[in-house]
Design a protein that fits this description.
The structure is a single chain. This protein has one domain. The chain is 59% helix and 0% strand. It has three helices and no strands.
Length: 61
């Protein structure tokens, strides 16, 4: 659940957020691709880092 106000609509919170700033979608997709497909970290270390960041941000893992 988001901590900011997101307009109601189809596709859930993520889809609605990207509809607010569609010009950022390409950059976000490239960042995600780099993190998950071009990372020098082994998958286990990357997931441990992702989980720790989520924990620090009070997000459920």
């Amino acid at each position: 659940m988001a901590r900011i106000d997101i307009p109601e609509g189809e596709g859930g919170d993520a889809a609605q957020v990207w509809m607010l700033r569609p010009e950022m979608g390409g950059a976000a997709a490239k960042m995600s691709d780099a993190a998950y497909h071009r990372s020098k970290l082994p998958a286990r270390e990357r997931e441990a880092a992702r989980m720790r960041v989520a924990q620090l941000n009070d997000c459920p893992i």
